[in-house]
Amino acid sequence: MNRRKFLSYVGCGCCGYILNSCSTAPITERKQFKIIPEQKLNAQAAQIYEKIKKKEKLITDSKLDKIISIGKTMENSISEYFYQANLDDPTANFDWEYILIDNKKVKNAWCMPGGKIAVYSGILDITKNENGLAAVMGHEVAHAVAKHSVERASRSTVLKVSTHLIDILSGGKLSTVNRTTGMNTVGLLSQLGIMNPFNRKQESEADYLGMIFASLSGYDIRETPKIWERMKKLKKGKTPPEFISTHPSADNRIKKINQWTNKIMLEYPPIKIS
Fold it and tell me: Does the pLDDT at position 97 exceed 60?
């Protein structure tokens, strides 16, 4: 088989596969490409989460109770929203769980696929209050609800396959470059920022959806920009330019959040659980 015919077969197969793997993100309706089974990532995340629980020092006092309370409220509000909208609930197969990690140096939180949430004690100095904590948790929950990890895993898989195909068609020249530079092409593309705009798009979407989820849950989302103002002051401007960062710049983030706030409060008021 000559190279042109081989490319034709591969191209047709990939196009059909991609067309069958397209979906949309909840609420925003952004087109998504997902080929990795969600259940697979959820199972892997659950295993990793258990290891983290054993490795890290956990806090189990009233601070954790507050996190669980906010989380449960958000769980119910998200499910109720999709139920009332007559839409599939993207959290239907979630096994929600919450931990508070005792680490004042880490000012972060995350939500794994399937609803496995961790909050670091250091972020509590930034959130300050219940509304602030709900804003941070809403953002992290939004990543899981919008299946961002599934997207990233799918894109990474396709990129690896594509670079392997290019290597074959180039007679192994790509492998030679990788050996010379000591870096695989996927890692190089990520480092150079070629994949970063996709990540920034996810982060912006998580900001937007997170505010919606917090508002539906009855929290005051006017606290959200204040968190990023405090985070900006904490970093003292030591952030990379937006074009080489996986996150939107603090200024752009705050600007967008302020633009969204009133609209979200009007369109997504606290939801009544039926």
Answer: yes
